[in-house]
Amino acid sequence: MAKNGPKEDKGHDEHGKDGHQHGPKEEEAGHAHGGIFGKNTELIYAILCGALLATGWGLSFINGVPPTVSLVLYIIAYYFGGYYTAKEAVQTIAKGGFEIDFLMLVAAIGAGILGEWLEGALLLFLFSLGHALEHFAMEKARKSIAALTDLAPPTALVVRDGKETEVRIEELQLGETIIIKPNSKIPADGVVIKGEGSVNQAPITGESVPVDKRPVDDPAKDYTAEKSIKAEYRVFAGTINGGSVLEVKVIKEAKDSTISRLIKMVNEVEKQKSPTQQFTDKFEKYFVPAVLILVTALCFAFLVIDEPFSKSFYRAMSVLVAASPCALAISTPSAVLSGVARAAKGGVLIKGGRPLENLGELTAIAFDKTGTLTEGKPKLTNVFPLDDIKEEELLKIVVAVEKRSDHPLAEAIVTGAMEKYKKLTSPEATKVKGITGRGVQAEVNGDLILIGNKALFEDKGKGGIPDEMKEQVSQLEKEGNTTMLVKRDKTFIGVISLMDTPRKEAKNVLKELQALGIRKMIMLTGDNQQVAEAVAKQIGVTEAWGNLMPEDKVEAVKKLDRSEKKVAMVGDGVNDAPAMAKSTVGIAMGAAGSDVALETADIALMGDKLETLPFAIGLSRKSRGIIKQNLWISLGIVGVLIPLTITGIATIGPAVVVHEGSTLLVVINALRLLAYRNDLKK
Description:
alpha+beta; Rossmann fold; Calcium-transporting ATPase, cytoplasmic domain N; 7-stranded mixed sheet; 6-stranded antiparallel sheet; 22 helices; 22 strands; disordered N terminus
């Protein structure tokens, strides 16, 4: 159960180290006590205890069988029922701790001293059986997490010295080429260098639709230090190849793969205490000593009331059993473990109880615009030809210049034009020259071509921009577009516009968040306020704050936090890390492809899917509801049993049955989270 004296959580970025423990022997993998019967030894001991107890009780009704026989069976039952209880109690006391197993042991010994061997054996049987079943139920939640370790295959087919060799994944070296056969698991993080096909990334990112993959442009390049690799090139260990053969270049060692890091972080969840768990730890810290004082006083009740010492002592032991807060100790950790396991299955990494609970209390969310609410890459949105020139002819001239330019928007213009006209052919541009902060100039077919923003042509003078053209540009910019004017010699021949378009799912996701009770959804961006408001209008955020530098985003989160108390910051986990650190919960998008995002965020959406955010918040709220239910069950049972045992209405037997029943009930209630589904999804 829980030890006294828990460490305090030290804030947003630091978590307590001593999570819930049922005993000092617990290990990360769970309550694997071991013994002569393996991991089931505790359960088998509990069953043996019950069998001996039942045999002894049955023999007591047979004439001619000496009572000593039943007594011996009860004493042997004590051994099997109390072995693990005593072992954990002794180990905890040796480390200067104190736990509930000790209270149960004292109660059983006390019953034996009074000659109530039957009730003492019953107590130990039910307690050990409850312990074992509780461990079994908790293990079900842990297995959902442990299943992650089975995602990556143990071996890989690697090409060495021109030959295909099967090696353990731990032996793979950076830069080596591995062969991925059709419908097989991918053994390492890497980039595709040969072959095309789809990959099922659901085990890592939670994406339901397979993702198409194709080879990188430069297979010889070293991608190990690349911070951002396009999804179409990158593959993850543990994902499943489709029906084609892929050749993949290894960019992460097995211990550093995304799945390995995910497993490590999820396994650390139980060490990080939630606010409710901190409350229950503090409650136990004062409650357990209070119970001991009460039990001690009840032992000497015979001095002030007319009853024998044996009756006072028995009552005290009954209260000791009734007041042991076993269900309380396990109520929150079981729910946190189940919630985190379900989130991981859905492609969301939640780093412990604190962010799991805090996520469900959010009333406001701040979103970074670029790459979070938008696609993160500009697209050609409008082409307006002028001076009787055809659209295709205008794009031929623009593409001729832009494909020779190194401006960030050039690639988007060329790509958009080629998508619009598949067979577009452009003339050769010469004398291409970039004009910093303005645009680009070149010669095409002997004509001087200028492509750039309004400032470029205002600087050039020569009559400036026609009024009707200014109005068109102004309207496009109000809609959130970045505009570029095209001039051939002295004549404007067109206007093109680009925009970082909103994600298709953004509008529906924001509606789902509103349905979940998120009152404020603020978009933060470095773009000008006009662009920010245009995007905000399209997707439905409540407010848009533009012209923000990274340090301004931090102040924006602080301001939001003062008015709303519980605020999340959603971004890429890299550029937004300072703002995330100041929020109640930092949430990173597309974290599967970013080491930094995995480290900095409290919650990581492994796939680049915004729609997993409502799922995570809904799961958090369900988790908080179950945690509250568990608290009411555990505290309510104790609140009822204590007066019943004090007054003598309930004896040790019924007390331990109800006590262990409540412990199992809260664990089973928590396991319901493993089956959580987002009710908002149709």
